[in-house]
Structure formats: C-alpha cells, structure tokens
Amino acid sequence: MRERVGVIGLGIMGKPMARNLLKAGVPVTVWNRTRAKAEELGKEGAAVAATPKALAERSDIVITMVTNSPDVEHVLFGADGALHGARTDQLFIDMSTISPVVTRSIAERCAAHGVHTLDAPVSGGEIGAIEARLSIMVGGDAAEVERGMPLFQAMGKTIVHVGPHGAGQVVKLANQIAVAINNLGVSEALVFAAAHSIDLERTRQVIAAGAGSSWAMQNYAPKILAGDFGPGFMVDLQQKDLRLVLEAGFERHLGLPGTALAHELYNTLQRDGGGREGNLALIKAIEQLAGVDARQKS
Amino acid sequence: MRERVGVIGLGIMGKPMARNLLKAGVPVTVWNRTRAKAEELGKEGAAVAATPKALAERSDIVITMVTNSPDVEHVLFGADGALHGARTDQLFIDMSTISPVVTRSIAERCAAHGVHTLDAPVSGGEIGAIEARLSIMVGGDAAEVERGMPLFQAMGKTIVHVGPHGAGQVVKLANQIAVAINNLGVSEALVFAAAHSIDLERTRQVIAAGAGSSWAMQNYAPKILAGDFGPGFMVDLQQKDLRLVLEAGFERHLGLPGTALAHELYNTLQRDGGGREGNLALIKAIEQLAGVDARQKS
C-alpha cells in the first residue's frame, strides 16, 4: 500500500518537489503559510490541509521544506504543529537546510513521541527540483532511509545516506562551503584578468578547460559576463547557510578562514541591497575591493 | 622548410615538451643547466648546445621553460645568454610562468634587437606535458602566434591567443588564483565534515556531483583521502605563482583577499617543511586551524 505523504512548505523548492510526488502517483496533502500556493497544488490533485496538525493526521510521512531551523521547529512543535497530529511510527523527513544541532534535537523530541525522523537536505536548485534531479543527502537510520527512498527517487537523482541524524545537514553545509569558496575563486580570477584589461570570455574559457575549473566557473562565470545576477540561489540564503556553518564551527571551535571571508564579503552585498540577487554576485564585492568593473572591461 | 627549435630548460615540464617536439619531427636543440638532462634528450635525437647563446645560433625559434622571472632573464640576457646568439626575425617563446611586467620588459628588450617574442605559459601539469594535452595561454602579436602554432599543437590541446605581450602570463595567474582558492574550498568542506565525524568519501562524492564541484574536488580530494600528497604541482611553485599574483595586484593596488589568504596558509606549509609536497596539501593548514585530522576520520 502506497504511503500517504504530507508536504509542508511550497516555496521555490517545495512546490516542484510536491508536484513530482504527485506525478509519481503519491497521495499528497499540502500545507503552506500562504494558502494560495497550497490551492495551486490543490488544483493539480493534492489535498489541502488547514494546519500542519491536520496534515499530519492524514499522512503517513510528513516532509518539511522551509527556510531555517526556527521555521521547522514552528511547523512541527508550534500551536497546530505536525507533532500534535502525529502517530507512533510516523516518519518526519526534513528536507530544509538547517542547523545539524537543531536537527538532532528534533530527532530526539520526535522519538519521544514514537515518531521517526530523517534529515534530507537537497542540492541542485530550482531547476534540479523541477527536473527531479536533486542531490539528496540523508541522515538517520537505514530502515527509515529505505522507507523514504521511493519519495527521494521521485524528487532526486543522487541519493546518498551519509550517516546518522544530522549528517545530511553537515554534508549539505560542507557542500555550501565549497559553493561559496569556489565562487570566490571565480570572482578573484576574473577581476584579476579584468584589472589587466584581458578579454574575460577567453580567460573564462581557458580556466574552465583546466585545473582551475569548477561548477561555478562553468555555470556562473558565463552569467556574470552576461550581467545576469538573478537567482538561482539567493545571497540571503547563501548567507543563512554560511551562518549555519560558522555557528557549527564555533561550537567546535574550528577555524574556517575561507568560509568566514566569503561570509564577510557577502555581508557587504546584503548591506548594499543585493540580498535577493544570485550568490554569483560575490564578484561585486571583489570588484569593489579591486576598484575594477570586470563586466565593463569584458 | 621546418623551423629549427631550441629548448632551454628540461625540468618536469620542459623535458616532455621537448620530447613531443622531437616526436613531431621538429629539429630540436636543447640546453639545460644540469647537462645530464640534456644528454638524455641527446640520445633521443636532439642536438645538445653548450650554452643558450650557442643554442640560439643554431635555432630559428627559442623556447624557454624555466622556473621564474630571473631565470628567464638570465638565460636570455646573461653571459652566454640566448640574445647574444640571436638574429633579426628570430622568435623567442617563453613558456615559463613569470611576472607579466617582466614579460613586457623582455618583449621590449628583444624587440630592440629585432627579435620577436611570445609569452605562452601552460596549464595541465606533468601529465598534460607528457600527453601533449597542455592548455597554452598565448600573449603577443597574431603573426607570431601563427608562427608558433605548429609547435604549440605538438605540445598542447587547448591553445588560446588571449591578448598582447604579457596577457598569457596574466591569464595563467588568473588560473592559479582559481586553482588555489578551489583547493581552499575542498580543504574547508572536507575538514568541516571530518569535524562532525562524517564519512569523507561519501561527502566527497555528493559534493563532486553538484554545485560545489571543482576540478580540485574531482581530482585532488580522492588523493587527499588516500593520503597521497606527492606533486603534481609543488607547494613551492604554487607559492611562486601566488607571489606573482599578489605582486601584480600590489602594483595596481587590487584587493584579492581569497588569494592572499591561500598564500598565507601555504606559507605555514612551507615553514613546516611541506614545500615539495603537492598543492593539495593545503588541507593540512586547515586541519591545524580546525584541530581535526581529516584523514584519520575518513
């Protein structure tokens, strides 16, 4: 028998993910803070619940896809939260990117009510969500990972069980470290070439063909040179993730100087009103430090 | 008529490059500071010259592949340097990675003697040199680039004329910025995961499949996890290149904070005797800052 799935959070990522579950024939109930977004999926065959609690009452598995740690805690534990509608052996899967520490505390709190949990944050952006090609990093017990697998396969492509509760969040944050620092590499390489009045399209081509290449050099650099700074992945969300990294780092007193530097530079973009641009806008901070307009030179 | 080529500098890169010219049927004369390396190529069909000057006297095109700016100036302009054996319309191609400023001054000094120049630094490492798959970034006049092209094609695969004298060096340095900073991304991502006791092989796999990927994540991370810190590309040479970037940056008063950070971290590796390890050893500096042995946790 097919398990019934509830999806809480229908933003840029949650909506196409819920839609892919519907396409796979999964019985889906949805809830969203702004009800209009839920109604949209209602027209496509989802049931619309009035509260997270009501959603949990009519679901076997509850997926959360919201912005940050307090949002997950609110929709699970708040007034009318999902846990108030939960039953023993229900499975809660949080696919948001949140603090690994909060993830572990959520796991304990749910376990006390007999509810199982997985953390399963994703990478691949809106396009990956739409095309069901997300990378999904799963933390939790193997039996629950197996239970969630049909859902993960309806939404993603690369699904890796990376460890116990919280491990999915840790690997997602490690990924965000690499994303942000690779962006810094693209920014400084292009600005250096621009400062010497070198053609940036040729510079990008040569670097993308060799040992200096990165996903960012292949995918972001062409957009940068075209002056396209739309998200993609918003600076505000990149900053939220880097804060989670630095907080997790502070708890263990890790020195992560490249991550800290990227975070500081993104701060200046947010100050200048760039929080809703794409994270590739990091080059603007380097242009300012270097006194060079890389795109005008290109 | 095939032009006769002289190759000065038969190190890790220069030797296989000269060998590929020989394989392509080019008449090659070689000179090396340590004569034994020249004799080796002598057995394979190259003529061995006693001095750079003698080499230039019997060559139409002179290629230099040495360590740094002063080395190029020495083999060209020093006692018995190549310029003393040069003729009008001879072509000097410097394939070393050196200062763009020195490159432009060499171009002027040679031009005063009627000698043409190109800067044509390479990327792709020893394996790229051996397999004739180097990326070659060429600066100089189009006519000379065309003249050098048969030689470049015998040694490399991606050959891009990036601009006037010095432009090849600038693009090579931009590439080295990206190489060093991407390495920092790999290092901090893996150390962050290790600090949380997450399996690093799975972490690497997930990141390499998505937006955090880089040439370094795909090629260096597996070596790091295997504890293989051999060069590849030595820390000492990476530092030489980053110094060239920072010096060129200082001349223009550019702020390149990620590059400066990578350089500082590599300083600590050199202090600890790691200058002859591969540049992927950067993770050791981050391990020290984070108090984590990433490889023991993997």
Question: Please, could you describe this protein's structure?
Answer:
2 copies of one chain form a homodimer. Chain A is α/β, with parallel strands linked by helices and 298 residues long. Chain A folds into 2 domains: 5-164, Rossmann fold (3-Layer(aba) Sandwich), CATH 3.40.50; 170-290, N-(1-d-carboxylethyl)-l-norvaline Dehydrogenase, domain 2 (Orthogonal Bundle), CATH 1.10.1040. The first copy, chain A, is 54% helix and 13% strand. Chain A contains 14 helices and 9 strands. Chain A has helices at 14-23, 35-42, 52-57, 69-77, 100-111, 125-130, 142-155, 167-195, 200-208, 215-225, 235-252, 257-271, 282-290, 294-297, and strands at 5-8, 28-31, 47-48, 61-64, 91-94, 116-119, 122-123, 134-139, 156-163. In chain A, the strands form 2 sheets. A 6-stranded parallel sheet of chain A has the order 3-2-1-4-5-6, sandwiched between helices. A 3-stranded mixed sheet of chain A has the order 7-8-9. The longest helix of chain A has 29 residues, at 167-195. The radius of gyration of chain A is 21 Å and the shape is elongated. The interface between A and B is large, with 75 and 74 residues.
